[in-house]
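Re: [ENG-882] Designed sequences occasionally contain unexpected residues at chain ends

Forwarding the minimal case from QA. C-alpha cells:
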C-alpha cells in the first residue's frame, strides 16, 4: 500500500517493527502484549467504506497478519467518527445490466476476507465507535466479540436498496441473535441504537465513547486469558441454526406471512432474506454463504433493485446540490415568520420550530391563530405520546412559535413564508404590505401551489428578494419543498431559502417559474388522463384500484379528494390557461360536477368518496353509490378497460409533461424530477421515479402507447427530443 505522510514532525513515526501493514485504507500494527490492531482509516474521505480499494487492502492486510508470528489477539478499530458505512453503492450500478454469474464475484472477495478474519488462530474483538451499516456490521459479525459505543448505530439496510446483505449477514446474524430478531433487522433495514443491539445479543457490551477502547481491549484480554470462550462462539456461527424441522417449519411460516404482509408484493428483498435464511438453515457457513450469494445475485438483477439504488444515489445528488446552495447563503436564517395560520401555516410553524428555528405566526383573526397553534400542538402531542419527546421539550417548541395579529417584530425576521389563501389578488396585497414591515435584506417567499412567482413579484419593490417556497400537504409528512425562481429572483434569495428548507429537514428542489411549477404541472395531465377515462366510461373505483396496484399510495379519485376538489378545480384552471393545447378539456369533467355540488373531498367529508372519522379520528373512506348518479351526465356508458390501457392513459401525459420540464430547464435533471414526484406526491419508490420507469419499460414501449392513444390529443404526443432519443437508443439515466 501507499505509505502515509506524517505532516506534523512532533508525531513520531511508529517503529517499523510495530507496523505489520500500511495502506491509505487501513493499517495493522503490533501493540503491547502482542495484540495486533487492525485500524480502518481511509485517507481520501471522511468516512470508511468497503469499495474495491478497501476490499483489496483488507486482503493484503490479512496476508501480512497471517504471516506474522507471535500474535495472541486482534483488536479491530476505526479512526473515523463512523466505523464503516458499508459498501460503496456507486460500484453497484454497473452490476444492474449484468447477469447473475457476473454479479457473484462482487460478493466473493470480501466474503473470503471475512471468513479469514473469523478463522484467525486467536480471538478478535471490534470497537464499534460510530455507524456500522451493511458491510460495516457484517465485518463486525465476523469478529468474535463486539463492543459498541453508546453513540454508535448498527444495521443491515440492504433491503431498502432492493438487495440483501451479501457478506455473510444473512448467515451470521441469525446464528448470533436468533432468526426472528435477525429477520426483523434485515426486513425493515432499520438501524439500532446500542441498548437495542445489546438486548438483542448482537453486541456483547456497551461503553461510553471515552471508555470504548479500554472495554474492548479488556474483553479481548479475557478471551486471550481463556476466561471467555471464543471457540464456542465460532462453532455457533459456523454450524446450522439450532432449530429442528418442526420448529423451523412453524417459525418460517409465521415469519414469512408477517414479512410478506408488511413488505407488500412490490418489494421482493425482505421475503428473499427469509427464503435465504430458511434454505441455508441446516448448512455449514460456506454452503450457507453460497445460498446468500445466489439470493443477492437474483435480487441485484431485478428492476426494483436498480430503482431503489437509483433513488438512493439521486437522493445523495439532491443533498449535494442543496448543500451547495447552503454554502452560497450569505447569512443564516435565525428567525422566521409565516403569514396565514391555517392547517398549512400551522404545519410550517410546527416544522420550523421543531427543527430549531423560532417562528412568528401571523393571521388577521384570532380563530386562525388558534387553528394554527392547535395544529402544531396536536403534532407535538403525538411525538410525546410515542415517547419521541418529553412534555418539557414540547413546551419549549410551542414557546418558540409566536402567534401574532400584528407585524410587531417583523423587522428582525430573516425569512417570511406567505401561506394565505390561493388567490392572486389577496396574495399580492399581503406580500406588498409585508415587504414594508421587514428588513430590506430579508427573504420573502410564497407557499403558492400555482400562481406565477414572476407575476406575484410585480407587486413588490424588491423582487430580487422574493421566491416561491412551496410545501406539500401535510407539511410534517411530505419531504418535498419546491423552491421557485422568478424572473428577478436573486441567487442569494434561492440560497437562503434552500438553506432554510435544509434546516427544516426538507428535500429542496430548485425549479423555474411556470404554471404549476414542477409537481402540479405534471400532476394535472395525470388527472386529465383520469377525467378522459371517466368520460369514456371507466368506473372511478376501478381506475383507483388499478393505479393503487401499480404502486401509487392512492388512486386518482381518492387523491383528488385528499388534495381537495376546490383546490383541484382552481389549479386545473391555471394549468388550462397556461398550456391550453394539452390541458384545456373540451368536455365537462366529473371533478367540476363535484365542485358545483360542493363536494370538496376529505375537507368537508364528501367528494368521489365519503369520509367519516374512525375511532382514532382519522377520515375513513366509504363509497356512496349515489355519486354515480351525480356524474351520470358527464360520463360515458360503463366500459371495462384493460389494466394496461388504464395505466398507459394515466401515466403517459404525466411522463411526457415531465420530459418537457427537463427539456425546458424547469428542473435541473431527471434525478431531481424523479425525487420531486417521489417526495411530493408519493410516486412508487420501487419504480424509482418517472424517468427511471420510462428507462425500465423502454421508450419504444412509451412510443407505442403514444401512437395507440394519439386520438386523445396533444397530451399523449411525444416531444421531439423524446423521438430523437428513441431513434438514437438514448436513455434518461
Amino acid at each position: 500500500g501507499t505509505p502515509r505522510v506524517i505532516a506534523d514532525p512532533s508525531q513520531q513515526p511508529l517503529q517499523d517493527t510495530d507496523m505489520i501493514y500500511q495502506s491509505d485504507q487501513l493499517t495493522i500494527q503490533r501493540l503491547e502484549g502482542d495484540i495486533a490492531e487492525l485500524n480502518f482509516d481511509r485517507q481520501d474521505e471522511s468516512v470508511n467504506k468497503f469499495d474495491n480499494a478497501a476490499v483489496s487492502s483488507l486482503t493484503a492486510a490479512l496476508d501480512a497478519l497471517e504471516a506474522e508470528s507471535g500474535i495472541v489477539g486482534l483488536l479491530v478499530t476505526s479512526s473515523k467518527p463512523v466505523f464503516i458505512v458499508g459498501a460503496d453503492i456507486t460500484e453497484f450500478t454497473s452490476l444492474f445490466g449484468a447477469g447473475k454469474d457476473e454479479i457473484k464475484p462482487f460478493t466473493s472477495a470480501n466474503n473470503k476476507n471475512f471468513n479469514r478474519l473469523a478463522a484467525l488462530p486467536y480471538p478478535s474483538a471490534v470497537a464499534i465507535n460510530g455507524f456500522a451499516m451493511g458491510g460495516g456490521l457484517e465485518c463486525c459479525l465476523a469478529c468474535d466479540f463486539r463492543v459498541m459505543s453508546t453513540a454508535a448505530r448498527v444495521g443491515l439496510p440492504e433491503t431498502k436498496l432492493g438487495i440483501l446483505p451479501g457478506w455473510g449477514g444473512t448467515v451470521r446474524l441469525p446464528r448470533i441473535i436468533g432468526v426472528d430478531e435477525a429477520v426483523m433487522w434485515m426486513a425493515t433495514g432499520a438501524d439500532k441504537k446500542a441498548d437495542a443491539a445489546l438486548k438483542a445479543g448482537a453486541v456483547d457490551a456497551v461503553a461510553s465513547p471515552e471508555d470504548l477502547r479500554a472495554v474492548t481491549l479488556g474483553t479481548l484480554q479475557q478471551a486471550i486469558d481463556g476466561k471467555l470462550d471464543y471457540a464456542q462462539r465460532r462453532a455457533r456461527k459456523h454450524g446450522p441454526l439450532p432449530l429442528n424441522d418442526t420448529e423451523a417449519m412453524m417459525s418460517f411460516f409465521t415469519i414469512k406471512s408477517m414479512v410478506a404482509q408488511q413488505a407488500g408484493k412490490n418489494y421482493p428483498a425482505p421475503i428473499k432474506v427469509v427464503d435465504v435464511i430458511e434454505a441455508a438453515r441446516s448448512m455449514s457457513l460456506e454452503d450457507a454463504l453460497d445460498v446468500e450469494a445466489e439470493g443477492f445475485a437474483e435480487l441485484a438483477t431485478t428492476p426494483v433493485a436498480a430503482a431503489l439504488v437509483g433513488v438512493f444515489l439521486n437522493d445523495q445528488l439532491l443533498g449535494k446540490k442543496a448543500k451547495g446552495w447552503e454554502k452560497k447563503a450569505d447569512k443564516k436564517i435565525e428567525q422566521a415568520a409565516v403569514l396565514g395560520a391555517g392547517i398549512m401555516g400551522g404545519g410550517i410553524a410546527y416544522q420550523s420550530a421543531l427543527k430549531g428555528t423560532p417562528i412568528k405566526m401571523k393571521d388577521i383573526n384570532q380563530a386562525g391563530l388558534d387553528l394554527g397553534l392547535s395544529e402544531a400542538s396536536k403534532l407535538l402531542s403525538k411525538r410525546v405520546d410515542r415517547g419521541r419527546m418529553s412534555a418539557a421539550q414540547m413546551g419549549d417548541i410551542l414557546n418558540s412559535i409566536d402567534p401574532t395579529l400584528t407585524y410587531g417584530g417583523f423587522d428582525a425576521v430573516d425569512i417570511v413564508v406567505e401561506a394565505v389563501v390561493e388567490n392572486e389578488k389577496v396574495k399580492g396585497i399581503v406580500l406588498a404590505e409585508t415587504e414594508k414591515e421587514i428588513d430590506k435584506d430579508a427573504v420573502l417567499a410564497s407557499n403558492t401551489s400555482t400562481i406565477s412567482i414572476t407575476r406575484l413579484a410585480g407587486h413588490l419593490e424588491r423582487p430580487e428578494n422574493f421566491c416561491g417556497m412551496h410545501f406539500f400537504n401535510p407539511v410534517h409528512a411530505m419531504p418535498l419543498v419546491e423552491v421557485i425562481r422568478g424572473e428577478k429572483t436573486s441567487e442569494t434569495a434561492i440560497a437562503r431559502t434552500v438553506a432554510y428548507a435544509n434546516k427544516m429537514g426538507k428535500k429542496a428542489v430548485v425549479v423555474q417559474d411556470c404554471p404549476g411549477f414542477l409537481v402540479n404541472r405534471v400532476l394535472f395531465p395525470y388527472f386529465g388522463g383520469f377525467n378522459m377515462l371517466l368520460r369514456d366510461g371507466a368506473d372511478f373505483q376501478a381506475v383507483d384500484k388499478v393505479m393503487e396496484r401499480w404502486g401509487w399510495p392512492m388512486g386518482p379519485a381518492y387523491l383528488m379528494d385528499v388534495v381537495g376538489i376546490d383546490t383541484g378545480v382552481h389549479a386545473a384552471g391555471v394549468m388550462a390557461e397556461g398550456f391550453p393545447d394539452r390541458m384545456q378539456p373540451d368536455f365537462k369533467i366529473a371533478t367540476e360536477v363535484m365542485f358545483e355540488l360542493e363536494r370538496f373531498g376529505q375537507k368537508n367529508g364528501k367528494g368521489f368518496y365519503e369520509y367519516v372519522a374512525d375511532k382514532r379520528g382519522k377520515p375513513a373512506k366509504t363509497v356512496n353509490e349515489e355519486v354515480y348518479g351525480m356524474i351520470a351526465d358527464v360520463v360515458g356508458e360503463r366500459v371495462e378497460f384493460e389494466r394496461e390501457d388504464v395505466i398507459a392513459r394515466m401515466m403517459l401525459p404525466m411522463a411526457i409533461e415531465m420530459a418537457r420540464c427537463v427539456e425546458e430547464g424547469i428542473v435541473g435533471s431527471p434525478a431531481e424530477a424523479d425525487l420531486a414526484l417521489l417526495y411530493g406526491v408519493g410516486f412508487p419508490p420501487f419504480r424509482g421515479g418517472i424517468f427511471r420507469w420510462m428507462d425500465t419499460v423502454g421508450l419504444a414501449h412509451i412510443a407505442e402507447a403514444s401512437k395507440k392513444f394519439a386520438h386523445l390529443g396533444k397530451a399523449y404526443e411525444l416531444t421531439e427530443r423524446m423521438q430523437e432519443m428513441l431513434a438514437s437508443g438514448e436513455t434518461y439515466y
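QA comment: On inspection the terminal residues look reasonable. The two ends are 35 Å apart (CA to CA). Proposing we downgrade this to a documentation issue.
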